[in-house]
Structure formats: C-alpha cells, structure tokens
Amino acid sequence: MRNRFWLLAFLCLAGYIVLSLWFPLRPYFNHSPSPDIGSLAPSLGEAAAYALLVCILYGLYGLAYRLVRIGDGKLSMVFVLLTAAAYCVPLILTFPLNATDAYRYFIRGRISSVHRQSPFDVPVAKLVDEPYAPLAGEWINETSPYGPLWELTAASATSLVPDNLWVGLLLFKGLAAVSFLLVGVLIWLSMPSVSLPRRNALLLLWAWNPSLLLIFAMDGHNDAFMLIWLVAGWWLMVRDQLQLGMIMMLLAPLVKPIGLLPLPFFFIACWKILPGGPARLRFLLVTALAGLALVLISFMPYGSPIPLIQRLISEAGSGGGFSPLAWIILEARARGLNPSIQLAIQLGTMLLALLVLWLLWRTWRGRSPLRSAADIFAGYIIQAFRFRIWYAVWPYPWLLLDRGQRDEDEICSKARLATGITFLLTSQLSVLIYGQIRTELLGSSQLRAHRAGILFTFLTPVLIGLAVAAYSARSRDRQIER
Questions:
Q1: Whole-number Cα distances in Å, 55 to 51, 59, 424
Q2: Does 276 or 170 have the greater pLDDT score?
Q3: Average pLDDT over the chain, rounded to an integer
Q4: Is residue 221 pLDDT above 80, yes or no?
Q5: Which of 52, 74, 91, 132 could form a disulfide with 217 if both were Cys (CB 3.0 to 4.6 A apart)?
C-alpha cells in the first residue's frame, strides 16, 4: 500500500508544481492592478485546462482516500501531514489566483506597525504616503472587517518585514498553510476513539483536499487561523476540559467575527454535560467574564469595537454577488421588478435567525453541536448577499468531526460529508463560470452567469449528497438481505 500511496502523493505534488510554474508568484507579486485567474488564463481553453487540473487533483485525492480506508492503519498521521506540507511549498510560491487578501493583510498590518494608525478607523486610501496602496484593490476605501486578534497578528508579521512585500506575502501565505496543517492535527487528535485507519482517512480528507490547499497555501486566506481556535476548543472539550475549550473558542471571532456563529451550540452542549446548577452557573460566569476580558484586551491597542461593528453592518448590505440572493434579485429585475435589496437582506437575516433558534432547540434536545456548527455556517452561506469561495471551508471541519463520531455505515453523515466535499470543488470551479465562461460563452451576462454559477455551485453538492445517501441505503439493504 505504501508504494501506491507514494505514487499518488508524487502525482499530486507534480500537479501543484505545475500550478506554481504556470502561475508563479514572483513575476506578478508587485503588479498593479493585481492579476487573477481571468487575466492569467484568459482564454476558454486555458480555463478548461485549469479546471481539468483541479479535477485531476480531486481524482487523485479520492483514490488516496480509498487507499487509506482499505489499508491496515500503518500509514501514520505524520506521513499524511508531511505530504500535505510538501504540497504547500509550491503553492506558497504560486500567485493567489482567486483572492488577493494576502496583500490586504500586509497593507493593513502596515497601518498599525508602520503608520501607527488603527485599521478599524483608517482605510488605506487615507494614507497618502502608503506605497502599496494601489495593491489594496477594491477594498482601498474600507476599514478592516477582521477581529483585533488578526490585526495584531498582521501587525506583528508586517513589523518583521515592513518594506518587503515579497517576504511579507510569503509570511502570510506560510501562516495560512501552517494554520491549515495545525487544524488537521487537531481534527486527528479530536477523534481518540476512532480506529486508526478511519482516523487517518478523515485526516487525509482535510489535509489533501485540493480546494483547501488552494485556499490556504496558494491564496493565503486567514480562515484557517480562525478555525484553529474553534477546533482546538472542541479538542479540549473532548478531553473533558469544557471551560478551557469554551474560552479557546472565544478567540475565533476575534480573528474573524463569523466565528461567533457556532459558539452557542458548543456552549449548550457543555451546559448539558455539567452536573447541576452551581457548576453551570460557574461555567456561564467564567465564560462571560473571559469573553469580556478577551474583547477588552484585544481591542486595547485599537480602542472601541464599534467601528468594526459598523463596518460589518455596512458590508452585509453592499457588494453582493455570486450568491443565491443576488441571483434572485437579478431574476426579478430581468422581469421588470425592482425589489429592495435591503428588504431582501433583512428577510434572509430573519430566516437565518429562525434557523439559529431551531438549531439551538435541536442542540438542547441532544443533537451534536458538530452538526449544528456545520448547519449554521451552511445557512449563513445560503442566505448571504455576498458569497466568496473560501466560505465553503467553514462547515467542512465539523462535517469531518461529525463523521468520526458516527458509525461507518451511518448514511446521513456520509451524505453530508459528500455534500461538503463537492461544495468545496464546485466553489473552486465557480470562478471560471463568472470569469472566462461568462465572457466567452454567456455574452458577458451577469444574469446568465448567476444562473449557471448558482445552480452548479449550490445545487450540484446537494444532488451528489442525495446520490450518496441513495447508494448507501441500497448497499445497506443488500447486506441485510444477505
């Protein structure tokens, strides 16, 4: 088995090396405006070649998963992680094709470390002497949407190389890659009762996933840094360190505020475990005081959190695109209607609030907080006015951890995980629909692109999940008949 796994690992590495040679970071890293997959692979043929490469990597990933699943457990966690780390190396040297957020991490870090200003109060456009301002892209007039823990991290990284964009980009991409690998370690550690072959297989589903590697190592997104605190908190809870685990999770929204969404479900799960009123009251008070202290300490260098709250409210109601809600609005306008965007957003928010209440009730009734965490992230993604491909990452670790808690033949968890994996793939490929396919085949129509993009990105994973559920049910019935 080891030889076959080595062959698959080598082929995967070769694929990522091809990406790094095709889209190298060095020639484009200081180019304004920053290129993307549409400008670096502008033709339909090049887009098809890129899609084929991603699909081949997914095929190798699937074969590796099957190989580990039928193995004897001798393939170690370290081996899986080291191969994933090897994939990260060429991707760190690849231009961030689908997102240039690493540039904004660097520039906003300079706001704190070089200009001695607050990124929550001062947008890049107001810094007249900022040499890297042209690379801030569409967010040049916006303040930071991230939490203070991330801005402190960005300022610390930028202070090491305040005037070296090349090394700064490598630092942020490297931080995202290391965070991604650490999340994999925590996922593996959080399943101590799972058999070793299955544990390694679930780890591989995280560490070898091509979309995750592209989002974190290539694009350098900070979502993995947020997920570290959430998954680390769950790992502590699994070890019966409920209070410490809850406090650890409180750090996630201080990286990205979206990290708030799953916290109530884990709080309820801990509350239900605790024996009696005094222990529960102590848990509530310590959690509340710890949360307040973390907010005060982390915002101390920046002042009030109010500018961040205002920024998030503003972002939620503007710049929509690539989302089911944006598609609905475009369809209505094509039929002569003029729906209120704000009203549509408010209706989506109300539906999300109802989902939260339903999931809270289900969690209180004993449903796993892992499932509720995955579902609330999925619910947010579906109703959001704005969708970006890295949003697909948020539910995924919880789907993996939930799968580890279930019986191997449990149909629902299989289908949910298949849906999550497919959603990562369709999200990654959706950029081609809104880019080259829209311009070359759809007459540059945003409406046609949304029709194709939303159906492909959101409906395909559901159909795959249903197909997996039907196949698993049929296989189980055959086994029962025998």
A1: 6, 6, 12
A2: 170
A3: 93
A4: yes
A5: 91
